[in-house]
Amino acid sequence: MRMVIWDGADGYKHRSAVRDFDPDELARHGVSQDPPTLDDLDWEAIKRDLHNSLVNRGLFNYEDLVRTQNGVTGAILSALRGRLVELYKRRR
Question: pTM of the predicted model, to two decimals?
């Protein structure tokens, strides 16, 4: 088996396992190897937590972002990373 990454009609990239002798065009019919669906994330809770993290970090305007080099990255990671890791754990 080999892995093929292909573009879906919806604009999402996918990865599928296909037999070694199958052409890449059959990847959409192969065994899906995609990451977990992000639809399962609680986006309202993520938005709330991101907002609160931005407030807690004092990031209210562009000047605040410039002043704190990694503030936005930290806020995004704090709101999203744990939830995304949990999606992967549930798939095991």
Answer: 0.80
